[in-house]
């Protein structure tokens, strides 16, 4: 189930919306590799690790920009929002470490379970975070970076 961008996710902040769209694409790229290779994911381990790394890196830069926009606009819930970003970042780092240490990359059954769980987590977090938390700061934004 590829998560599609929809206008309901728009914050009307062009840079943020553009970045959110890219996050959807990065997750969908992981999902495509997963869906097309479920029976032999270990043969795609480098592609999958690189895709998770790219998602992690892009998410970090996105969070910094989003937090800067909130800071410039004196969003009163900035610290709480940053904590949510930190929890997500910690979770992604934990999952990436789990993926790259041990024997997970050579076990198709465990990889299948790992990526199924990862994708469910990413889809739920991204859509819920945008629809709830990011929409909460939307009325406060008077100017962009």
From TrEMBL:
Domain of life: Bacteria
PROSITE patterns: HEMERYTHRINS
Keyword Iron annotated: yes
InterPro entries associated with the record: Haemerythrin_Fe_BS (IPR016131), Hemerythrin (IPR050669), Hemerythrin-like (IPR012312), Hemerythrin-like_sf (IPR035938), Hemerythrin_metal-bd (IPR012827)
Single annotated GO MF: oxygen carrier activity
Gene3D superfamilies given in the database record: Hemerythrin-like (1.20.120.50)
Keywords: Iron, Metal-binding, Oxygen transport, Transport
Hemerythrin-like domain residues: 12-141
Pfam family, one: Hemerythrin
Recorded family membership: Belongs to the hemerythrin family.
NCBIfam families listed in its UniProt record: bact_hemeryth, hemeryth_dom
Name of this protein: Hemerythrin
Species of provenance: Leptospira meyeri
